[in-house]
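Cross-posted from the bioinformatics board.
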Amino acid sequence: MNSFKEKFIQNFIEEDRWMYLVNGLKTTLIITVLAVLIGIALGFVIAVIRTTHDKTGKLKFLNLIAKVYLAVVRGTPVVVQLLIIWFVVFAYPTASLLVAAVITFGLNSAAYVAEIFRSGIMSIDNGQFEAGRSLGFNYIQTMIYIVFPQAFKNVLPALSNEVVVLLKETSVAGYIGVQDLTRGGDIIRSRTYEAFLPLLAVAIIYFTIVTVLTWLISKLERRLRNSDH
Amino acid sequence: MTTNKETLIQVTDLQKSFKNLDVLKGITTDINKGDVVVVIGPSGSGKSTFLRTLNLLEVPTSGTIMFEGVNITDKHVDINIHRQKMGMVFQQFNLFPHMTILKNMTIAPIKLLKKSKEEAEAKAMELLKRVGLEDRAEAYPSQLSGGQKQRIAIVRALCMEPDVMLFDEPTSALDPEMVGEVLQVMRDLAKDGMTMVIVTHEMGFAREVANRVMFIDEGVIMEEASPEDFFNNPKSDRLKDFLSKVL
């Protein structure tokens, strides 16, 4: 027991090593939140392009670009994308590591979010669309007033799940030297030559956040189901 | 029935093909103000497609549709403006499930006709009262029976104050005991002088309410007559055969 106490003090208390975890967590959360925002915005645009093309045959060129984008992002590992963004696209030393990570995870998430939104939009019965058009709404108005609100409600669980996945995926940001939560634990390990406690702490923090998020999601889902008219 | 012969919709040589399948093979007819036209025919005859081309939910392959003097098949015409004047009722009701009944009925008048919320709601409540559903204004579609949904779908279309109402098999998805309440609303509507084009299998309704009955088969109007002649003296063999099966 004494040795556990000693190790705990050595790993977390001495030289304020716990701050590596706090600052790492901050970085992880910043990357996740900003990447989610980028992912949702860009993913929505891509989904609209793809569904508009599928429904009307318009936007052929944009649809092609979107399809290539989805294929490339979903067909390559996120670590490789991260390395390419940092070492090839951001190839100058004054660039911010954090910005590179946010952009990488944002662009990556957008591809998955786009497919989530697309399946949500396509899941709405075409009769809804026709009813909107027959009242005199144009394509865009029909989408905004009738299709999107229903689609959004349908995809909310999948969308929330994507947030959880993204949060965990950001743990590879250390590959380019971002000091996120995972890297914070790893730095402690390299200072104290003690792997178990710092990495356990990191795992517990991820697990706690994911559990809380999942609980919030299931609560949200239940509320949506109750108001499901 | 009516002596007013002002043409509302003029259909000329309407054709529609899906890939290699010719669904409409040249339909020409006039629909006059106050007409109640019932369209019947076997399934796959093109009768629903014909109805759906009238407001361009299906874009015809060739031919023209003049609505209130405007060629709405012209690509440069803003069809959305004209659709506001053509109410449509679907077999599957297609109420918006995420909105209350009142919102279902007022969203189009508010957004498209720029009516105030108060004005649109007053009109909606008046129509709800007419179909006996004013107590369901705040309900959601999922809380309604099929017959109630279809009555709401009809009055939702009426909120736009259309000049013609198109009905695409409005009672086909209903339980038998709910058909009557929907037909009653349509009957009242016809009595009020609304121009209506109705695709249906309700022969009794056609006989009673229509002033013209149209038999569409194999993509053309095979026969058209007043209800009396149509049901009592069918001319073509196809119609005789069809009536012998459905009556």
